[in-house]
Task: inverse folding
């Protein structure tokens, strides 16, 4: 006797047949209508193509020399901003990260740290930079504060999540020896999160460098300010030189951080 | 040494893990705690060192009432109770020595431990226990570079370096092969004899428990349903603890091994496989 073969197909994502067709149909309808409302101004686009052509022509002949003094000053400012803000950001993000890890922090501290991180993360760098430029005036100090603040939001959140994901067994074991809270932190938590903390910090260095170029555009100093000036003067060849330098530095950071991350794993 | 009276543990979810457990363990005695998963074995030993807070009842270690200690006093009391874990619970990225020295954390201040500047006496103790468990050659290796049996020995060394009065042992052999399991059980039993330690050993393997411990306590649904010598574990008793099953093979296995060992004409414990520590 051969067994009767039974049919099997994977169950659909949405079990209710009517609901399924309503949702799929609704999404399709929305897309058709939405595309219908997009206005394309072909005349303006063709003008833009001409400007883009000039920009790309500038890229083919980047001019490093005629504005070199400005570029050098901007670069130096950006790199200073990057290094200082990353270091300060890391130092401040560690306590916030620890405080925001539910498995080791008491509830009131957890709530406070999570709230702070949520605020720090909800504001984009450019918005913080505009605000801080108003507060502290044009220049790299506002940029430094912006990036340090953003670094705290970024690192503290990832660190907190990393701490919440650690293996609880060593934590329990160290606690069982009679160790105090700080000792548990140093012996059971830190060794488990240190490699990723170092990796994320390295990653943050190159994010901060890129962001230092962006916040410069709103007046917070650095290479971004130089780039903005070059663009305003239609000096696309100098702008291209600046962009190439930024790309080069980001690539260098990328390789360096990849190398260091591989070493500490 | 350890006296537990009417210990009850009810979790916040309402689950009753332990119900009126009364148990006393004299110094030098190794008690095997058996029972099905979820019977409360883990909760019981964790109530003793208060990794889990007991709901009712008293737990006394010598003259000390463990169930009523303040936070600070609890840290001091935990130094007297070494704990050994199922998956070893080592800190993988720390060296063997650091893992062992972490057993002294209750005795040294924060900054000393932060900079790994332990008192020489503690380092001497650590080397002594590492010698005893046979890991002298692995002092500076990372804990995750060792095999399962070696890792469990690091776990044992960490508990011993506390110089405890009591060992709380949670499924020490659950992730080890049969031979290593015996070596580890033998080591624990020998150490308790040498140092006159009381010990509670949670264990799934009934035959292994019978082979090594002097007394068995059976737990079912949070209640003690058996307390007696290993050879008191009849099929009826095992059915009482675990539920109905054919138990003859489990019991025969342990007995046969004892007979084989006796036939070889050597002491029961030492005859079965290679000596644990090679000098």
Result:
């Amino acid at each position: 006797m051969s067994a009767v073969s039974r049919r099997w197909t994977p169950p659909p994502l949405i079990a209710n047949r009517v609901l399924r067709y309503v949702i799929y149909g609704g999404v399709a309808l929305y897309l058709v209508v939405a595309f219908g409302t997009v206005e394309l101004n072909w005349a303006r686009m063709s003008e833009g193509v001409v400007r883009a052509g000039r920009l790309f022509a500038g890229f083919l002949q980047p001019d490093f020399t005629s504005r070199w003094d400005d570029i050098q000053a901007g670069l130096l400012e950006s790199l200073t901003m990057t290094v200082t803000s990353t270091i300060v950001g890391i130092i401040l993000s560690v306590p916030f990260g620890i405080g925001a890890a539910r498995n080791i922090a008491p509830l009131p501290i957890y709530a406070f740290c999570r709230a702070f991180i949520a605020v720090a993360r909800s504001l984009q760098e450019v918005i913080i930079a505009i605000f801080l430029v108003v507060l502290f005036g044009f220049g790299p100090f506002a940029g430094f504060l912006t990036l340090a603040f953003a670094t705290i939001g970024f690192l503290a959140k990832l660190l907190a999540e990393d701490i919440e994901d650690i293996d609880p067994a060593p934590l329990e074991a160290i606690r069982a020896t009679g160790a105090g809270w700080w000792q548990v932190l140093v012996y059971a938590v830190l060794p488990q999160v240190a490699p990723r903390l170092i990796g994320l910090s390295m990653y943050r260095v190159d994010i901060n460098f890129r962001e230092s170029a962006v916040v410069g555009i709103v007046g917070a100093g650095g290479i971004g300010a130089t780039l903005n000036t070059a663009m305003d003067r239609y000096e696309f060849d100098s702008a291209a030189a600046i962009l190439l330098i930024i790309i080069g530095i980001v690539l260098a950071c990328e390789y360096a951080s990849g190398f260091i991350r591989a070493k500490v794993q | 040494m350890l006296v537990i009276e009417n210990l009850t543990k009810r979790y916040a979810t309402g689950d009753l893990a332990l119900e009126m457990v009364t148990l006393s363990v004299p110094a030098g005695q190794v008690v095997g705690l058996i029972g099905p998963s979820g019977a409360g074995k883990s909760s019981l030993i964790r109530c003793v060192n208060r990794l889990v807070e007991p709901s009712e009842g008293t737990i006394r270690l010598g003259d000390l009432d463990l169930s009523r200690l303040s936070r600070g006093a609890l840290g001091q009391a935990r130094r007297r109770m070494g704990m050994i874990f199922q998956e070893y619970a080592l800190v993988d990225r720390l060296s063997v020595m650091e893992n062992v020295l972490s057993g002294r954390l209750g005795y040294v201040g924060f900054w000393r431990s932060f900079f790994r500047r332990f008192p020489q006496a503690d380092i001497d103790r650590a080397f002594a226990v590492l010698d005893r468990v046979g890991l002298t050659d692995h002092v500076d290796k990372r804990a995750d570079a060792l095999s399962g049996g070696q890792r469990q020995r690091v776990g044992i060394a960490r508990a011993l370096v506390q110089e405890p009065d009591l060992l709380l042992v949670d499924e020490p052999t659950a992730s080890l092969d049969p031979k290593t399991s015996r070596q580890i059980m033998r080591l624990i039993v020998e150490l308790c004899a040498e140092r006159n330690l009381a010990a509670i050993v949670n264990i799934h393997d009934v035959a292994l428990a019978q082979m090594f411990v002097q007394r068995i306590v059976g737990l079912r649904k949070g209640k003690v349903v058996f307390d007696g010598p290993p050879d008191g574990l009849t099929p009826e008793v095992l059915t009482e603890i675990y539920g109905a099953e054919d138990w003859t093979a489990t019991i025969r296995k342990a007995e046969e091994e004892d007979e084989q060992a006796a036939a070889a004409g050597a002491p029961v414990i030492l005859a079965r496989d290679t000596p644990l520590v090679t000098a």
User: Anything to note?
Assistant: The interface with chain B takes residues 169-170, 172-180, 182-183, 186-188, 191-192, 194-195 of chain A (CB under 8 Å). The radius of gyration of chain A is 26 Å. The CA atoms of residues 242 and 248 of chain A lie 10 Å apart.
